[in-house]
Every structure is written in structure tokens, then in C-alpha cells.
Sequence to fold (697 residues):
Amino acid sequence: MKNYSNWDMLIRMTMSLVVGLCSSLSLAQDEMPQQPDPYSQIEFMTLENGLEIILAPGSAARTVKIYYEVDVGYGVESKRNLGVAHLLEHSLFRHPDLSENMSFLEVIQERGGEGNGVTSKRKTYYFATVPQAEGPWLVETFAKMMLNRSLRPEDLEKSRQEVQLEIGEPHPLHAFLGFDVSYYLTLSYLKSKDFYEYNFGLDLNSNPFSEEEVRLANQELNLRSVQKFYDNYYYPRNARLILSGAFDPTLVKESLLEGWKKEKDREGIMPPRPGVPHPRGRPHLIHSLASGSTPNIQMGSLLYDTTYVEEIAVNVFIKYIGNELMKEIRNRKGQTYTVLPNYFTEWGVGYASVELEAPREGYKEIRNTVRQAFRRVRNEGLSDEEFRKAKDLTMRQLGLVESDSESLHYLAASWREYKKRYGEDIASPYRVLTEMTRETMNQALVKHFAKERRLEYLDVPNVLFRYDEWVFGFALLLISLWICRWVLLKPFDHAGVRWIRKVRYPGLKVIEICALGTALFVFGHLRHVILTYLPELVEWRHNVIFNGYLLPWAEVLIGVGLFVGTLSFFPRKLMVEGDNLVVKSLTYYSFLIPFDKIQAVKAVPYWLVLMSPGLLWKLGWRHFVFHPFIWQKSLWVETEKHAYVFSIKNGNLASQELQSLIDKKAGHSGHDGQGEEEGRGGGEESQKSFPLQSHVM
Fold:
């Protein structure tokens, strides 16, 4: 079983692609003979319990397809029952009437058919296809499978294992902690708007939970929560049954639906709708570099504020233009593999486009050819000849549907969607198409392929050479590091060093790792803001120089600035050079405190500083104590306006040595600056006597 967040999109797009591929066949140029309406046999009915039934018989079909759709998916799940929709989907394929080694999937296979189930955000689907002779059995079997179910613990546990194998085991660390650490470490909670949210303000596909959280939750779901989910959402008025293919509709209505009528009408929870679309009213143009992949072109239009007739007109046109571009670009020039017409709408919004791959050498020519095709339609519409060919193409394709239960299902499902949006009394799409005039189609095309509705996803070849953005980015990284060194590095007289001490840090580079982690955290959020909102604000998503080069370079500069700047905040060494106390950071940065500005040097326990509001006010943010032993004495350096506290090994000795050097500069008497090796363990930076003659850093 599969679990796709946009499986309904995949089903419809797959059908659109199959139909579009058929258009590559050569077509006769004379008019199509009159043919029966393929929608005329489709019946819509509602049982007394509220279950919606759609029958789509086909006399030429050799198979029967059943399709049961429930208006609920993982979109209604919370933290407490995460993964319950998918687990229920698996559980319903088991039944007490079946032996332990069987499920309905195997039973269907042994009858010569195949079936599956799919859980998406707002819907859960159960479907199967069998030979014509097994059609009555399939209808009765699905009723037993879907209705009046009381789940058994043993079935739930077996289904849980199936789901766990399908979605994967959770990471041992996450299983031990009980939550998904990587969700926060990788900043996965930073969500960007998808196509529907960005263009129409509709959240159709997003999921607030990570896949790892679902893996963890699957192990905790119990029978009560799964049964409750079934009782709340699997009620007849929240579902529909579509039967298509080789069957007798009279027999189905008189006897085969008896099992579906037995479940009583009952109350349940109505899942929330996604809301009302609010189109941006601007083109959706995204151009990016195809550095490591084949250049790709997808062009078309955003669909919103459509009428029933306009939807059909646009659908017919996009198949036709795909066919024409296929003949021009592939067959005549050999510059692409195929041209795919895409048409998809959901909740009244969507897109219509053609998509194709293009060679790097002829990319601009192909792009301009596709653009010109849409531009001409936008400005001039279709000619009489083009209009006739577009209608004939769709008519011929519709003439093949009766031989295929899958195509019949597609017709029934699409007409049901039209009825839901435009009313129950609308004519069939076939009738609308036969009565459509060229003027009606051109009005729809001019409206829906206007400039403000343009859709473009372009993967563009590199400007100079393949992977040039990586080469330039690496060069920029080196240059930015050199600039940081040039800006931050202060002039320093190594021969004038008279005293040096290291600031104490915990082992294993804990502070450094935490500092870089913080910088990475901030960088991730800044990067998200830049990539999500900056192109939208400046409307440069269609500029490949901006998207492919300038934005990544900005990421490099911001990243280097953050990492170097964060590490510059942490002092690594205290040195006396000339008559200045030099505070050297973990990076190039250092700052000077002149001796004549220092008013006091002391050794104080850090806990005492934390307990004194006056000392804390004096310090401000200048706390440089990184070891956990706050009872040990640290070095306190105070100027007229500020104070600094540093974690230094043997704070008493360090304060005496530093004070001695300050006193000497001031002309006071004091000891000669004799000291001992820092930590008495030595080190390349420790010295045994003062003043130092020289010190090489």
C-alpha cells in the first residue's frame, strides 16, 4: 500500500498524461463522425444512508473497477493519534471471515485482479480491478470490507508491522528519546509555501509532522484510537462508491447494492475544508539553474475563477497544444523526448501547462517556440482550423473510453468533481464540447492565458559552463574568508608580548561546537527568510541570475559573516603587548584595553558576580566564564565604564601578574613580574619570567 500526500493529483495527472501521449498518433483531417456521449451511461444516486453511488458501465470493457473514497486522511490527525489514518487503511484489508494468512488483497489476486489502498491528506482510497465475471463478487466483498467494521487486536498488530516496514523503523536515538531530534536540528519546521498556498492561499498538501514522528507514533497507536477514527469518519455520508467497467447497472441496483444499504445512516465528524482560495493575481514564474540535470520547460497558466465551460475549453486546448508542440519540437526537429500536457484542478484552482525536456544547445529556441505558441493564443485565439483539430482530438480520445474500466472511472470521477463545483444539473462534458463554438473557446483562452496568469517553471542551462555557480561560489568563499581576515586582523607586535594567559574552556571543544551550532541555527533561519520572502518581495523569482547566482552568493557571505562573527565573540587568549591588554578571540578578531583605562584587576569567584546586581550591571554581556566551576576565582578587569570577567586558571596569580605590569607602567613599585608556567604543565604559550623578550603567536 502507498501513502502519498497528493495521490489524487497523481491519479488525475497520470490519466492526463496517458491521454496526452495518445495525441502523438497521426490524426485524420476530416470531421469526426457523430458518436454517442460516453457520459450518457453514467448514473449518480444516493442511498438512504447517505452513501453516494456512481455507476459508469461500458459495454466494450472487459474488467470491473471498484473505487471507495472516504473524505478523510492524515490531515485531521493530531499528536495523539498520528498515523492512525494509514494504519486503519491497512487494517481494513483484514477480516474475521478470512484465514490468518489471507487479506482481501490476496483474495482479489486469486480472483485474477489487483487492489490497493492509499492515504492522502484529505482522502483515503480503496480500489480494485477484476475480470468481468468477478464483478458481482467484488461489489459484495468491498461492502464486507468497508462497512460495519469492528477491528480485532490481532489484525491491528499485524497491520502495524506492515505499516512499520512500509514507512521504516524510527532511529534508535529518536526511539530512546521519544521524539524526532532531527526535526529541530535540521530546521525542518521551517516550511515554505507550496504552489497552492503561494498562489491561492490554500493549504492543500502540507503536513505539520515529520516522517520520523509518524514512525514513532505508529508504535504507540492502540485499538481504541483506530476504532474511534473509523467510527468518527467512516460513515456513509462521508464516502462514495464508484463502479466502472463491464457490469449490468440494473443488476447492481437491484441486488448487488444490498450489502451497501445495510449500514444505517449515522452521525460523524465532518473534516474541515481548506478554505476559500485567494489568488495573488500575478504570474507564477520560477527560473532556476539546471546545473546537474537536463534543462526542463514547463509553461502554461494558473487556473482560478473558472466556469464549467471554460474548464473544458482549457482542458481541450492544452491537449491540442501539447500535440502540436510534439509534432514541431520532437517529430520535426528531434529536440525533445516528449511533450506532456498537464491539466489539474482541486478546490476550484490549479493549472494547465505543457512540460518537456530540452537540450542545452537548443534550449532558447525551444523555450521561445513554446512561449510564442501561448502568446499567439493569448493575442489571437485559435483559427477555425485549429479549433476543429482541437475538438476532434478530444472527441477521438473520448471514443476509446468504453473499452477500459480505468478510463470509465476517470470520466465518472471527473464529472462528479464538475457537479460538485458547478451544480448537479450541468450537462455532460461531451455535450458541452460538441456545442462549444470557436468564439466561446477563444474567450476562455484569452481570459485564462492572460499575462497575469502565466505559469513558468524553467530549469535553465548555466550562463558560462556547467556547474559554474559552484566554481564561483567556492571562489567567493575563499575571497570572503580573506576579507574577514583583512578586516578583523589587528596589527600586532609579537616581540612586544610581555604576558599571556589562555581563557579556560571545557574539553572536547564544547563551547566552540555550541557556538557554531548557534550560528548554524541563526543562518538556517536567515536563509529561510531570504529564499522564501526576498524573491517574492522583489518579484525576481523569474531571474535566473538572481536565483541561480546572487542568492547562493548571498548565502555564502551571510554564512561566513555569521560563523566568523560568532567565534569572534569568544576570547581565547589574554596578552599584554606594550602597554595594552589584548583580548584575542577564537578567530582573527582582537580588541585592546589600554592600561591607563583599567581601574581595577581582581580575582573573584564567578558565583559572587552572579549574585551581585551591581556587578552584573557593570558587566553587561561581557561574561567570558565558560567552565562550570563557578566557585573558582576568575579574572575581573574593570574600566571606567565597563567590566570584563574571564575564566583563567589560577585567577589569583593571573590578577597579581597583570596588576604588577600595570603598576610598572604607572611607575609604581611592584614585584618584577615573576610568574610560573600556566597550570604548571607548560605549553607553548607559557613563560617563566616577566617581562617577555618576545613571543611568536
